[in-house]
Design goal:
349 residues; alpha+beta; BirA Bifunctional Protein, domain 2; 2 domains; three-stranded antiparallel sheet; 10 strands; 19% strand; binds 3,4-dihydroxyphenylalanine
C-alpha cells in the first residue's frame, strides 16, 4: 500500500472512531461536559490535531476526508450543545418546584374539649381583671386543708378521698384548686384577683360519672369592702358569657369550711332552656359551682388582716361545664384520647 493511502486510511479510521465516541458521550454533570469540550473542541483537542494533519492528506482525498472531518467537528459541537441543554432542563425542573404549595393534606390537630372550655372560662374572668395563678399538684396538708379551715376530723382528709403520698409529714395530691388560694394569699397582700385552673385528684372509683382525676377552676377576689353583691354580679356575668344572655342563676345556701356564708349556684338548664329534661332531672336547673365569702379564719391563717379585708371565692369543675356545653355523657371520654371523640371539637377554638 502506498504511503499516502496508508495515511488516508488511518485518518478515516481515527475520525470514525471519534465520531462513535462523540455520539455515545453522556454527561451527568458539567464536569463531563467540559471533558467533552476539551477532548474534542479545544485548541489542542483531537479535532484541531486532525485539522493539522489534514495538510498531509493527498489532494485527491482531501474532499472525502475534509467532509468527514467537518462532520466530526459539527457532531462534537452539536453533542456538546445537546448535553448542555439536557442538563439545564434538569436543573430548571428542580427550580420549578412550588415551595408555597402545601406538602400534603395534613390534618390539623384539635384542642382537647377541656382545654377549650378552660380557656373560655379564663377569658371571661380575664375580662373582669382576674389573672391566672397556678400551684403544685403535689401539695401538703396545710395548703389543701388546714389553712382553709378544714376541721382535723373533716372527712375530706380521709384516705378514702385523698391520695396520700406520705403520711408523716402529710404530702398528698391536691383534692381541689382552692390550695392555690392559700399559696397566693400567703405570698401576697390584697388586692388579689386570681383565677386558678388546674388538675385535682380524688380517690374515686372510675365510672361514667366519676374519675380519680378531674379539673377545676378557682377564682378569688380579696380587697377592701368586697361584698356578696360583688360575688353575685360576677357570677351572673360569668353565667351569661358562658351559656348565653338568657341564662338565669339561682343561689342556694350551702356549706364549705373556707367560706362563710357559702352557696351553690345553679343555672337555668341550657339543654332544655329550663323546661325540664333528663339532664337537669326535670327541675330546669343545674348546679355548676360552689362559692362564698372567704372565711375570716382563712384570711388570718394566710396573713391577711380579716378586719381590713374581705373577699369572695368560687370553684367549679371544668368537666361539668364541658358536659353542659357539649353534652358528653361519659366522663372517661375526656381521658381516653380517642381521636374520633377529639375530632368532634375541630370547629371549636
Ligand atoms: N373547693 C371546692 C370543691 O372542690 C369548690 C369550691 C367551693 C371552691 C366553694 C370555692 C368555694 O372557692 O368558695 O368542691
Amino acid at each position: 500500500m502506498c504511503q499516502y493511502l496508508k495515511y488516508f486510511t488511518r485518518m478515516i479510521d481515527r475520525i470514525q472512531t471519534l465520531l462513535t465516541e462523540v455520539n455515545a458521550w453522556t454527561a451527568k454533570g458539567p464536569d463531563e461536559l467540559e471533558t467533552l469540550r476539551i477532548k474534542f473542541l479545544s485548541k489542542k483537542g483531537e479535532i484541531s490535531q486532525l485539522f493539522n494533519d489534514f495538510r498531509n492528506v493527498p489532494n485527491d482525498q482531501k474532499r472525502q476526508v475534509g467532509q468527514l472531518l467537518n462532520e466530526l467537528k459539527n457532531k462534537a459541537q452539536d453533542r456538546l450543545n445537546e448535553l448542555k441543554e439536557g442538563l439545564e432542563a434538569a436543573g430548571t425542573e428542580q427550580a420549578d418546584i412550588d415551595y408555597s404549595r402545601s406538602a400534603s393534606p395534613d390534618t390539623i390537630g384539635t384542642r382537647h374539649p377541656l382545654s377549650i372550655v378552660k380557656n373560655e372560662i379564663v377569658d371571661i374572668f380575664a375580662r373582669l381583671g382576674f389573672t391566672i395563678a397556678e400551684g403544685p399538684e403535689i401539695e401538703d396538708d396545710w395548703h389543701v386543708f388546714s389553712a382553709l379551715n378544714f376541721a382535723p376530723e373533716h372527712p375530706a382528709r380521709d384516705m378514702q378521698d385523698t391520695f396520700f403520698i406520705e403520711k408523716e409529714p402529710d404530702i398528698l395530691l391536691r383534692t381541689h384548686t382552692s390550695s392555690v388560694q392559700t399559696r397566693v394569699m400567703t405570698g401576697n397582700q390584697p388586692p388579689i384577683r386570681i383565677i386558678c385552673p388546674g388538675r385535682v385528684y380524688r380517690n374515686e372509683a372510675i365510672s361514667y360519672r366519676a374519675h380519680c382525676f378531674f379539673h377545676q377552676v378557682e377564682a378569688l377576689y380579696i380587697d377592701k369592702d368586697v361584698s356578696f353583691a360583688d360575688l353575685k354580679q360576677v357570677l351572673l356575668y360569668f353565667a351569661r358569657e358562658m351559656f348565653g344572655a338568657d341564662t338565669k342563676i339561682r343561689l342556694r345556701p350551702s356549706y364549705f369550711p373556707f367560706t362563710e356564708p357559702s352557696a351553690e349556684m345553679d343555672i337555668s338548664c341550657n339543654i332544655c332552656g329550663g323546661k325540664g329534661c333528663p339532664f337537669c332531672k326535670h327541675t330546669g336547673w343545674v348546679e355548676i359551682l360552689g362559692c362564698g365569702m372567704v372565711d375570716p379564719n382563712v384570711l388570718d391563717n394566710c396573713g391577711i388582716d380579716s378586719k381590713v379585708y374581705s373577699g369572695f371565692a368560687l370553684g367549679m369543675g371544668i368537666e361539668r361545664i364541658t358536659n353542659l356545653k357539649y353534652q358528653v355523657k361519659d366522663l372517661r371520654m375526656f381521658s381516653e384520647n380517642d381521636v374520633r371523640f377529639l375530632e368532634e371539637f375541630k370547629a371549636a377554638y
